[in-house]
Task: structure prediction
Amino acid sequence: MTPETKQKAMRAIGFLEGFSAWVWASTGEKLADEFADAYDQYVEEVRKAVMADED
Result:
């Protein structure tokens, strides 16, 4: 992955994290905790995969 591509991926991950904060704030208790936890876990897995890429 080129440095430029990695930077773009990290920006996209930042968007996903910001989106999750907005969704949780907007929906309040209507959103299942399991869904929120799973979403955050998936975003973290993507972040780790991007950071681990050394190509």
User: Anything to note?
Assistant: The longest helix spans residues 3-27.
